[in-house]
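## retry 2 of 3
previous attempt timed out at serialization; input unchanged, resubmitting
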Amino acid sequence: MSLIDSHAHLTFDVLASDLAGVLARAAEAQVAHIVTIGTGLEDSQRAVELAAAHADVSAVAGIHPHEAAEVTRQHLDGLRNLLDSPHVVGMGEMGLDYHYGFSDRLSQRRVFEAQLDIASSRQLPLVVHCRDAVRDTVSILSAAGFDRRPVVFHCFTGTREEAEVIDDHGWRISFTGIVTFKNAAALQDIARTYPADQLMIETDCPYLSPVPVRSAKANEPAHLVHTARFLADLRDEAFDTLAAKTAANTRRFFALA
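## retry succeeded, writing output
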């Protein structure tokens, strides 16, 4: 049995300051591979450097919507160059966040569209951040020609109707520790019947520690096992079966070796 954490932030200080320990605990928990996600140009550069140094880590490079207001053409040119690294397996996380509004919506859409323009000529899968913005996110992706291309809406917490809209465009969603929370009945209902050949799991660490470690100060890849066990029980599957399916789906999505 082995698991893959499809979305982590190993470059964030709380994890990077104990990286050896984080990776050792992940291996002990049978997390065989970790995809670490960039949130800006500098963070993406750190993600690539980390992936270059560790065979069990791959990088995704992109600009988070929270950073959009500060993004210049130089940032986008730097991102374009960074994507040439053999350690980059996807673009993201990119998208729209209308919940916090750390960047204005016009800037968010501008940077999202600019990244999609860069992605249009590449064969990299997309990792999308979408919060309270499904309609605009879907519209922008579709208008940019990404229907039926590999796109994952990470940390999905939307409605069944929104999940169906995403599926209608040939995209997928992934599940974090949120699915283990007592107040997540609607999300659990979606996860219970989500197609086995698309199911992916993630920690989004250092955030969103799952039950029973929800009080942990920092989530980490080793905790992915709790989300996987919960989903296996929810779907009435053997744990090893679910772990193998999610790992295979993640390897296929990111074209991991």
